[in-house]
User: Fold these one by one.
Assistant:
Number 1:
Amino acid sequence: MRVVALAGGTGGAKLAEGLAAVLPPGDLTVIVNTGDDTERHGLLVMPDHDAVMYMLAGRFDFERGWGHVDETWTVMDGLAEYGEEAWFRLGDRDFATHIARSARIREGRAPTEVVRSLQEALGIATPILPMADAAVRTQVRTDEGWLDFQEYFVHLRQGPDVREVRFAGDLSPTPQVLDAVEAAEVIVIGPSNPIVSIGPILAGPIRALLEGRGTAGIPVVAVSPIVGGVALKGPADRMLVSLGHESSARGVARLYSGLATAFVLDTVDATQEPDVAALGLRTLVTDTIMADAAGRARLALAVLEFAGRP
Amino acid sequence: MRVVALAGGTGGAKLAEGLAAVLPPGDLTVIVNTGDDTERHGLLVMPDHDAVMYMLAGRFDFERGWGHVDETWTVMDGLAEYGEEAWFRLGDRDFATHIARSARIREGRAPTEVVRSLQEALGIATPILPMADAAVRTQVRTDEGWLDFQEYFVHLRQGPDVREVRFAGDLSPTPQVLDAVEAAEVIVIGPSNPIVSIGPILAGPIRALLEGRGTAGIPVVAVSPIVGGVALKGPADRMLVSLGHESSARGVARLYSGLATAFVLDTVDATQEPDVAALGLRTLVTDTIMADAAGRARLALAVLEFAGRP
């Protein structure tokens, strides 16, 4: 069963890992957000891609909540000593990723091909496709004006309210993304921030393609990143509210209505199921917390089983 | 007393450190070879500059003989895992240097200015000037053909005999180098490889400027890197022989005749003093081995005192 999963950072990455664990090798393709990519110290950093890559390689640092396990910080400390901006911390092992990627892209190779070479080096059978090869940069408007996403997300620690979001750059999907969506028998929208993780992917031509697949009868299953009204990680809850949405599974379902054909919400949000169903979405109420590898596999299996139901 | 020292890697760097230790701050300027600079993993690596910089910052790894003290190797191991060429080992702290430098140069700043910012961050009062801002690459011809310098020096561990040396690139000195040479009251040619460390500096217009200074009565003192017929470090001895020179203090003095006005040779080579004097060079025979900081300061003082003699 060919499955395409859309993912941002942690939540989407966890479900992607669960899907990779339960599907036969080669059946899964992950499309990751590139809107939070950033250039640091002359190197291209791709936080969502790398979260998924490290997760699928079994190297994600769950304790810290980002980056590679067993990190050291020698390079970053050295850069700080040289007066480089140091609020965006990168570990030494992580720097190897950014250095190898940047060098290969500078040689003229496409980002999609370059990151696939990194994934393969880490033994990852699942292609993790950047949503686009051209640079896309998410920007958020706060009361202080437009900010680059990482300025808001890391430097200001998601403090300011977000009033507006935009995606600067060329959102054209790559041939690899088009092929994967075209071939998909199930499409999963992971439990990532719908505004700034899934939002950038859907801001481009991919959205219409996914809608077309849903209309053609392919299940498009979204998993709520909001559980009990809050985001398990990150600012999705406050961002939904400041942008005029409801911070709830129902609020997320509304955002995906017209695109998703089915929706998964947590058992703690079971009372919202009728409202989600009223949007025309099939619903699954289940435990969506992925506390460990077993939890990730369990949710992945539940989502796939639900997707396959008539 | 304004002193300009020409330096390559270890030997020249050690003497430069000794001079910096005994001269008032601001009196010394070091001009370093850039012919062994190289691009690794998309980053500009400047081995001779960095040897001098780490030496003057008290961070040179004397045990290893290159690089920054207390190094770790996480980035390099990660790059190797991604399939990057790994024979040119770079430590994590060292990577901070290459990353910060490359990022700043890519912003359009001149290499001389960029490396000065790094030196200042490490508390180094002495300007360490690259011999040129444009890329210069030393290449050596062996029986297998022309090789990039680091391919010969690091990858092949200086195994093949060197038949010919050339310097590809634009050897134009920077304004900072011209000013330093113009203002110099003493010029010291450090005990570095005369072919591939001092050679690139002298291959450009700097040579004629130095000759002019010498003719004008400014002492130009060269210190022999060959002691008892051998190089303390590196392939200078074998390279001298394979290029048709003599591997001796006298052989080095011959290479510098017409440029240097004075020559320092080690006590073990005292019998060569008449031959060196016969070249028209003033001579100093002294202990040139710099085993520690005291040894470096001692040789620096001896060289300066010798330079100041009528």
Number 2:
Amino acid sequence: MTKSKKIDPLRIGVNFHADGTAKVRAWSPTAQTLAARVNDRFTLPLQKAENGYWQATTGKIAPGDRYVFVIDDEKAWPDPASLSQPDGVHGPSQAVNVCAFNWTDGEWQSPPLSDYILYELHTGTFTPAGDFEGIIQKLDYLLDLGITAVELMPVAQFPGNRNWGYDGVFPFAVQNSYGGARGLQKLVDACHKKGLAVVLDVVYNHLGPEGNYLPFFGPYFTGKYKTPWGDALNFDDAWCDGVRDFFIENSLMWFRDFHVDALRLDAVHAIRDFSPKHILQEIKENTAELSKSTGKTYHLIAECDLNDPRFINPIPKGFGLDAQWTDEFHHALRVSAGEPRQGYYSDFKGITDLAKAYRNAYVFDGQYSEQRHKFFGAKTDNPGRQFVVFSQNHDQVGNRMKGERSSMLVSFEMQKLMTAAVLLSPYLPLLFMGEEWSAPSPFQYFVSHTDKQLIEAVRKGRSDEFREFHSGGEAPDPQASETFEQSILPWKFSAEEPHQTMLNYYKALVLLRKTQAALSDPDRKATTTTVDEQAGVLTLFRRGREQDFHCLMNFSAAQLPNAFSEGKKIFDSADVLWNGPGTAADIIQPESIIIYQVSHV
Amino acid sequence: MTKSKKIDPLRIGVNFHADGTAKVRAWSPTAQTLAARVNDRFTLPLQKAENGYWQATTGKIAPGDRYVFVIDDEKAWPDPASLSQPDGVHGPSQAVNVCAFNWTDGEWQSPPLSDYILYELHTGTFTPAGDFEGIIQKLDYLLDLGITAVELMPVAQFPGNRNWGYDGVFPFAVQNSYGGARGLQKLVDACHKKGLAVVLDVVYNHLGPEGNYLPFFGPYFTGKYKTPWGDALNFDDAWCDGVRDFFIENSLMWFRDFHVDALRLDAVHAIRDFSPKHILQEIKENTAELSKSTGKTYHLIAECDLNDPRFINPIPKGFGLDAQWTDEFHHALRVSAGEPRQGYYSDFKGITDLAKAYRNAYVFDGQYSEQRHKFFGAKTDNPGRQFVVFSQNHDQVGNRMKGERSSMLVSFEMQKLMTAAVLLSPYLPLLFMGEEWSAPSPFQYFVSHTDKQLIEAVRKGRSDEFREFHSGGEAPDPQASETFEQSILPWKFSAEEPHQTMLNYYKALVLLRKTQAALSDPDRKATTTTVDEQAGVLTLFRRGREQDFHCLMNFSAAQLPNAFSEGKKIFDSADVLWNGPGTAADIIQPESIIIYQVSHV
């Protein structure tokens, strides 16, 4: 038997046909019998099929019905591929006709990645409503800001209703408290109507610690490899194909049934797979096949901490992913902005490294890392559109002990400089919700587990984690509802000063990037830098066909003479327009950026 | 600091200069202080150098001196890179001037891999002497047999003096009871003088369970990955560079200081490394660099159970290893010869799979394996010279419960057929010591540990292992000296019948392979097969420029009509010359092979 991957036959869980019947399918190679118990009223036996699958086609299940799978006539568990968990992770699954949605985005086509300006948000804290409907109400605002893609932190069902999303345990079920599958479909449709792309964060490297019933069905995990979260997902050990199919189908589902434009694949460095074909490559190939059949473009963006271009190189040279996050740009930028060099920041030297990040994407491409205790990284010549950069994101903010945004750490002027450093880069800029108006609130780490031992372990884990970073103060209690509530964006301040000015500043820079081809040019050779280490000034040159942009960034606290005279000064973050200290032709203000436009003859 | 790998600076342990002084170097990134305690008389402090190394140059150490390393002024351990352990694995290390050997092989150059006909032997049981000197006495015999390369099972120092070698714990020290470093150098020099290449089996995927003091020096192992032997060697976690250097230098040492022609890298599938550059590729690159400086050719041959051509594809497409073992050829051949389809044999169907192995090297190149419970393998179009095949080897014999050779399992006729199947293949044939005269003794699994708990664990492990394979009988006690003694080749029988005839038979086939270009042609397209499943006959066609060879192999127990009429019959294993039942033009005898030579017009 040779493996041939088809898109439709892979569907798992409960899937409705056009005629109203449903195909019920589960993977459990270790089960002797498997049946669906529906509405606690009747039992539907599944027939054994190839490769550990069980299936049945039935007219007896309707959308909305609740069901569990009964293994060996003994124990009952929710469906690993459940599309809905109306009573949370420990309750029964619910059948959903995921195809029964009236899409209005037939004409929609995702923009090319190079046009992506990403806005990362957490559904539960982006608005007081804390759900997809809340986001829909904000779409005009986001459109006005100028971003082109909404990136949702993970929405797979997690325990309780307060979680970043990385503790999800039902990869196919959309969090019920966010609005479930239907709510997400509505949101994506609304985004597309406004012209916004949607990126969804998905976690294929671990499952959360509470409500993970997958091991009862089969060897989803393997002791062959360890991850920070325990045994690794089984992508290459015995029975791995069912697990591979599970995540391949998951990635296809979001594109096919939810119309998302891109997936952000969480922490792919923690995916352990020594198969001849890496699971990420197999996901890419299946995505490409789906793309052919739907005529839509889909992007795969990895979070990857390996500085290894194999992930983003085209097949067969690499796994073929379209882009990756680059934390090192952030680290270099933040140290340039005065962050103490402790923890993972200790490897970064400030503007010299930031300049390297502008030119090479990876700061470490073979040097010794004192922090990692090894030579780290490889050379990359991949184009700029393959890298996502940011000055803030959920991790970089929320994984500080107190979850401080830049607004609570650096001056208003420095915030403006950092933003410009991101938006003028040859990479794909990502903003973290609220940074555009310098939201004064924290984004903290929060959970809502029910298992007491686990709650204690998470509390302890958090406070241990910060020994390295912070000497004083207490970490907020991740389990406390206040920790979550403090993290909800306080929009009431956004219309006040200096928030309104910051918002205008962001809009101006986003617009500049969108209207000047040289600024979103992903060609590496079009970007050069000079660094005056002593003065603390980095100059970024972005070259275009008709004009160049010279960006002088003063990361120092000193007012410096500005001898730069080429071209036309078109932007100064120190302008009083942006609540700055004011400008003059021959100076560059502390913590400020000046942009010159130089036209070719 | 950028990493630049040089051959000489990598030397670790105690290495003597031409002026008699010695450089002492150890890697211990976790030590606060490190010193060498010499002859229990004086202490030589080492200075801290880069990347966790400690070193000193001294005139106070002479070859023959014994020493230990003292960490943090507290505990003393033998040198991980020790070249000699005169008192075994728990005793002190001994300084050896590994460069002070009068080599006489200056003109020697390894044959190309395609000329290799390998003879695998275990130093301890190949001769009653059980050492390198014993092998030297047999070189004329081996030359007469016609093999071109002697392959030594691992010789790194192991506990006691009875061990296959895979429990080695000092990768740089040559087993003292075999004759140590000097003994190995003498053997290699003698081989080269006779025109024989030397292949050395080295283990880079684990260390043995007794006498492994490496963890006291630093993070040689990582809990990130698990292997069948516990935590994996640390090739990609924090501090991995010292571990990588250790094994890179080890591979270089065997080529540079011991003049071996090839390394057989044990079980590379158990090496876990997600670095941008795999450790095997780094070993290959360093070997190639050494080759440039010495002008000699070095080969790297992997034992690999992954059916993934990435290991043997050239850099950058793959890791660049020169060849790999293919157990699947053996499994298919053995099932063809009547082996019950249990354990790992259950995946193999006999001559159909053997035919596939002849054409494709991998039997599984993407099919579902019931034994592995997953789709397994990838396509390969690598040439035949990249694959090593055998009908017996130390594992396939010794990992049977009672260590039975083919001589104890199948008829004399079938032994002859199996041998021919190997020697006529388009791959590199490997013989296992003694098979050439159908030695009637077993090759069993034996150890000589001193740790009682370990001894019990090994005993239990062995008997558990055979539940799957054998229902009756007891596994021999691995720790018992009789188990070892029974495995020593009983050469006294070799001059008797039918052993003498078998030896002549082997010589004839080896000679045929060596003299007929078509038979060692590694071009895949020059090999085709036909299979008569019903009759049990596989016909192998080897095409040459001037003539072809058609090899009819009858694996059945029936005498069959032979309608084959093309060309000239040049060989029939059923000939009375080979103690067979006799031949006739129109029949093919049970369990026999007939070879036809077909000249091109």
